[in-house]
Amino acid sequence: MKKMKMNQLLRGALVAAIAAMFIGFTASCSKDNDDNVNGAGKSHKVVFKAIASSGSNIDVAVYGIDGNPTTASSLSGTTWSSPEVTSEPGAYSANVAVNAVGPNASATLKVQIWVDGELKKEGTSSGQYLSASTSYTF
Length: 138
Description:
- This protein is of the alpha+beta class.
- 20% of the residues lie in helices and 45% in strands.
- The chain has one helix and nine strands.
- The strands form two sheets. Strands 1, 4, 5, 7 and 8 form a five-stranded antiparallel sheet that branches. It has a four-stranded antiparallel sheet with strand order 3-2-6-9, with helices on one face.
- A hairpin with a 2-residue loop joins strand 7 (108-115) and strand 8.
- The longest helix has 28 residues, at 2-29.
C-alpha cells in the first residue's frame, strides 16, 4: 500500500514538473522573434541522462524537444540514458524530467542534457523521493 502511494506521488510530481516546463516554454515563445533564435537553421544531436546515488532506483523519465515528449517508464537502476535524438533545424529547447526513489533522505539524482557531445545543462534533486528536471534553449 505504501509503495503504491509513493509511486502515485512520484508520478504526480513528474506530471506537475512536465506541465510546468511546457507551460513555461509556451509562455516564453509568445513574444519570440524567430529571426533571432539561437538555434535557427541548425539541427542538434541530443542525449538525456540521469544519475542517481547508490541504492536509488530510477522509475520514470520524460524527455523531448519542443513539446514532443517521450516517456520511458518501468525503469530501474541508478543510471539512465536516452537514445540520441536529432532535433529539427530551428528547434527551440530540450527538456527532461526524471523521478526516482532513494534509500534514505540523503539520496541524490542528477539529470543532464548533452547537445552535440557537450554537457549543456544539469539539474539535481535530493531526498528519498527524487524528482529532477532541467531544460536547455538552443
